[in-house]
Design a protein that fits this description.
Helix content: over 70%
Distance between the termini: 29 Å
Strand order of the largest sheet: 1-2
Pfam families: PAP2 (PF01569)
Order of helices and strands: HHEHHHHHHHEH
InterPro entries: PAP2/HPO, PAP2/HPO_sf
Shape: globular
Keywords: Membrane, Transmembrane, Transmembrane helix
Protein name: PAP2 family protein
Largest sheet: 2 strands, antiparallel
Number of domains: 1
Oligomer: single chain
Radius of gyration: 19 Å
Structural class: mainly alpha
C-alpha cells in the first residue's frame, strides 16, 4: 500500500473506531461509578479510606477564603452562560447536533448526579456520617460544562481546551475536598458521570476519534498547574510536614484522575 493510500484510509479508520471508542468510554465510566458506589460508599474500609483522604489536606483562614471564592463562581447562572456559549459556537460551526449534544451532556450529567446523591444511593452507617455526598454536584457542574465546551470546540483548539478544562475541574474538585464539602471519591464519581454522558452523546454524533498524545500532555499540564495553584494559595497538609506524603498523594491522584478524564473527553470531542 502506498503512502497516499494509507493517508487516505486514516479518516475512514478513525470514523470507524469513533463510535466504538465512545461506547467503550461510556461503559468504562459507568463501571468506575458503580465500583465507587460499592467500594467507597458501601464498605466500611472504603468509607474510612475516603474520609481519611479528605482530612489529609486543609487550608488556613486566608487560603480557605480563596478556596471558597473559587467554589462561589460555580453556579447555575455560570452554567447557563456556558450553555449559551456552546450554542453560539455550535451555530458558528453550522452544527445543530453539536448544540444538542452539549446541552444533553450538561443536563444529563447534572440530573444524574442529583438523582444518585439524593435518591438512589444509600450510605451505610459506619459512624462516618450517613449523609451521602457522592457524586459532587459542584464538580459535576464544572466537568459537564467543560465537556460541553470540548464537544463544540474545533479539533485544532482541543489541546488548549484540554489544558484549561483540566485546570478548572482539578481546581474545583480539589477545592471541595479542601473545604471539607466532599470526599475524593465524590469528585471521581462526578467525572465518571460526566464521562458516561459524553461517551453516550458522541456515540450518537458518530464523531471520529482524535489522536490523543498531545491531548494527554495538555491535560496533565492543566491538572498539574491547578495543583501548584492550590499550593500557592496556601493549601497544606493538615498534619504538617508529617502528613506531606499523604496530602501529596491525595492531590496528585485527584489531578491524575481529572487529567485522564479530560484526555478521554477530548479524544471524543471536536
Amino acid at each position: 500500500m502506498s503512502i497516499d493510500e494509507r493517508t487516505d484510509t486514516e479518516p475512514q479508520q478513525r470514523a470507524a473506531t469513533g463510535p466504538l471508542q465512545a461506547g467503550a468510554t461510556a461503559m468504562f465510566a459507568a463501571a468506575v461509578l458503580a465500583a465507587l458506589v460499592v467500594l467507597a460508599v458501601g464498605t466500611e474500609v472504603g468509607q474510612e479510606i475516603d474520609d481519611s483522604a479528605m482530612r489529609t489536606v486543609g487550608a488556613g483562614r486566608d487560603a480557605q477564603l480563596s478556596v471558597l471564592s473559587v467554589l462561589g463562581y460555580v453556579s447555575i447562572g455560570a452554567v447557563a452562560l456556558i450553555v449559551v456559549g456552546c450554542l453560539v459556537v455550535a451555530a458558528l460551526r453550522g452544527s445543530l447536533r453539536l448544540a444538542v449534544a452539549a446541552v444533553v451532556v450538561i443536563a444529563g450529567a447534572n440530573v444524574t448526579t442529583q438523582l444518585l446523591k439524593r435518591v438512589l444511593i444509600d450510605r451505610p452507617d459506619f459512624e462516618l456520617g450517613v449523609l451521602n455526598s457522592l457524586p459532587s454536584g459542584h464538580t459535576t457542574l464544572v466537568a459537564a460544562s467543560v465537556a460541553a465546551l470540548a464537544l463544540v470546540t474545533p479539533r485544532a483548539l482541543q489541546p488548549v481546551m484540554a489544558a484549561g478544562g483540566a485546570f478548572a475541574v482539578t481546581m474545583v474538585g480539589a477545592s471541595t475536598v479542601v473545604a471539607g464539602w466532599h470526599r475524593p471519591s465524590d469528585v471521581v464519581a462526578a467525572c465518571a458521570v460526566t464521562l458516561a454522558w459524553t461517551g453516550a452523546a458522541t456515540l450518537v454524533l458518530r464523531h471520529r476519534s482524535v489522536p490523543g498524545r498531545g491531548l494527554a500532555v495538555a491535560s496533565l499540564a492543566g491538572a498539574a498547574a491547578s495543583g501548584l495553584a492550590l499550593v500557592a494559595i496556601g493549601v497544606r497538609p493538615l498534619a504538617g510536614w508529617a502528613g506531606f506524603g499523604e496530602a501529596a498523594v491525595v492531590l496528585g491522584v485527584l489531578g491524575l484522575v481529572v487529567a485522564i478524564w479530560m484526555w478521554l473527553t477530548s479524544r471524543l470531542a471536536g
